[in-house]
Write a structure and sequence with these properties.
By secondary structure, this protein is of the alpha+beta class. The protein is about 35% helix and about 15% strand. It contains twelve helices and eleven strands. The relative contact order is 0.19.
Length: about 350
């Protein structure tokens, strides 16, 4: 029944033009209940069938991996939720005042929702540190939930400061190698492009966003983005290695990370799992756990989405996860797929 209902939702979404193709992976108790690919990995410059082994630009699912690395550091007493960000990023100066690791993880720092840091970086020839000093605030810390990439850009820098390695190296040593996540990576080699799912036909969406801010940037990619991170701040500003976006991986890779939040494992203890998956913003309109969104209204689970068409949802009480990977940006006019995601999560929680 589960597979039939999800297959129907996936087929209907493709037929309606929500995306060219998608992969679904549902697991319970650490074992796959459904793993299916349907539709196309690409329509241009060539049509290719999608498989469950294809590698996607994970977009903001990168934030869940960054969260996992931060939680591992908390477990090792290298950092705490109440640690001021300035303890590890003193160069932030005034921008970091009053902001803690918890504020960054729960998007309660007050930082502006989005800024094209690459415009400041390129146009003013600033260093990365000087550019991040230009983060703008919309609210004081702990007063509102404002989803902001800046929070996870800074968390990535905190990890690098503590571990004294770049994020790609930390990721490899702490997660990729021990969990055998062969597809999870920053800046994938061009040799595996054929295994990857392309995204936009150039950075058209961000170009429009920059234009609306009355700013200019002359280096936007114009061709199909394939094997490179779609996100502008990750690609143009941070060379593809960042805490908010930049990771590539398969549905299997994402499911393995989700498993760490539900199953007994040496990477995240049960105490750390419980610390992560709770509502830290009960008075806000959006429920925020550490890194994750708390789905108060529908399933009682926790989830995160990615701009490119990816998502992961977990229900620790049932040891249940659902990973959805789509190529929603790989079309002339990308569509909003949140209703499709919610429908899939509802089917999973109802059937299992």
């Amino acid at each position: 029944m589960l597979e039939y209902k999800l297959s129907t939702l996936l087929r209907d979404a493709i037929q309606k033009g929500l995306f060219p193709g998608g992969v679904m992976l549902v697991e319970q108790d650490g074992y796959p209940v459904m793993h299916q690919a349907m539709g196309e990995a690409s329509t241009y410059p060539e049509r290719r069938a999608l498989s469950t082994a294809h590698i996607f630009d994970l977009a903001s699912l990168t934030k869940i991996v960054t969260t996992t690395l931060i939680l591992m550091l908390i477990q090792e007493d290298k950092i705490r939720l109440q640690t001021p960000v300035l303890k590890h990023l003193s160069w932030l100066g005034k921008v970091g005042e009053g902001v803690t690791i918890q504020h960054l993880l729960t998007h309660t720092s007050g930082y502006r929702a989005w800024q094209p840091f690459y415009v400041i970086h390129k146009n003013n020839n600033h260093s990365i540190e000087d550019t991040l000093k230009c983060i703008e605030r919309e609210a004081d810390p702990a007063t509102d939930v404002i989803y902001s990439d800046a929070n996870f850009i800074l968390l990535g820098k905190v990890i690098e400061a503590i571990e004294k390695q770049n994020l790609s190296q930390v990721l490899y040593h702490r997660l990729v190698r021990p969990l055998n996540l062969s597809g999870l990576q920053y800046r994938p080699s061009h040799e595996i492009t054929s295994q990857m799912v392309p995204t936009e036909f150039g950075n058209r969406i961000e170009a429009e966003m920059v234009s609306k801010r009355k700013q200019s940037f002359e280096h936007f990619r114009q061709n199909v983005i394939w094997g490179e991170v779609n996100d502008g701040n990750s690609y143009y500003f941070l060379q593809g290695i960042a805490g908010h976006a930049g990771l590539f991986g398969t549905a299997t890779d994402v499911a393995a990370i989700a498993r760490l939040y539900m199953m007994d494992n040496p990477w995240l203890s049960s105490d750390i799992q419980q610390l992560a998956l709770r509502d830290y913003t009960p008075n806000a309109s959006v429920g925020r756990a550490l890194g994750w969104v708390y789905d108060r209204e529908q399933t009682g689970g926790f989830y995160h989405t990615g701009f490119t068409g990816t998502s992961v949802w977990v229900d620790p009480s049932k040891k249940l996860s659902a990973v959805i990977m789509t190529s929603r940006l790989h079309q002339d006019k990308p569509k909003d797929i949140n209703s499709f995601r919610k429908a899939c999560h509802q089917v999973v929680t109802t059937c299992l």
